[in-house]
Amino acid sequence: MPLVRSACARTPAARTSPSRSGTLTAAALFVVAATVLGGCSDRGNSSSANRTTSTPSTTAVPSTTTPSSEPPPTGATGPPSTGGTGAPTSARRGSGCTATPRATPPTGATSGAIADVDGDGRPDTAWVGSSGGHRRVGIVTASGAASDVEVETGSPIPLSVLVVDADESPPVEVLVSDGRTVHLYEFVDCRIQPVLNVDRETYLFDLGFRGTGTGVGCAAIDGHRQLVGLLARPRSGNRVPWSRTVVHLHDLRATNGATDSGTFTSPTDDRAIQLLHEVSCGDLTMESDGLHEPAG
What we know:
The protein is mainly beta and 296 residues long. The chain has helices at 34-37, 270-275, 286-289, and strands at residues 16-17, 29-30, 48-51, 53-54, 110-114, 124-131, 134-140, 146-150, 160-164, 173-177, 181-188, 191-194, 204-206, 215-221, 224-232, 239-250, 253-265, 280-281, 284-285, 291-292. The two termini are 25 Å apart.
């Protein structure tokens, strides 16, 4: 079972290069459901955004980033639909995974409904817990296929898990937070597998522990939703500068893409400022919709 190895400390500052086709448009911004950011649609006059293009990082962690300060354009890509459980419903369809002998979750593990991860149209289940010093995250599909992974972390903070279809394209992403970093996994070939950076280590987002990022989100960019890292920079009066970096996902690999930046203004953009310090995608947030390891 692959283990997570943290390499956040080696992350350099993001580099910039001349603009290229396919990078962020001026209208690209951080996507959240209207029920979450409905009050921010008129903030275009209170905040600004600049666009740059970053070359892919050669380290394990993205220079984490944030939402754009412009109002959502008409027809911006939104979150996946939700069912009665609140778990997002995957648009893809398939035969599902073959049932396997179920690994027993640790005693007292937290479990709950999640997105359809294997494409059979039925809600699946995730769990998070620890036993004997081993902290694990698992998924059991509706068909009975079970997979779990041990998360290696020195953080004393309980783990949290949010399952999302970040780029609205298979496979589904599994975001695991230890309160300091977010470990990136995907559900591929009926197993939870780590997404690797260019150094072939598990891709990590910083949550303010090392100063390279503060949150994780999803953004509509050129009409397609993508996973982004977020960075809230030091506040100056009522203004909060931010930057955001696109994370390109392909074949269990993650590379850094373009970076853009802007400024939010309080109190108009208070909800957007808050999201710079959270893990979210669409209308789902780690705090409200994720699964949380029991404390202690």
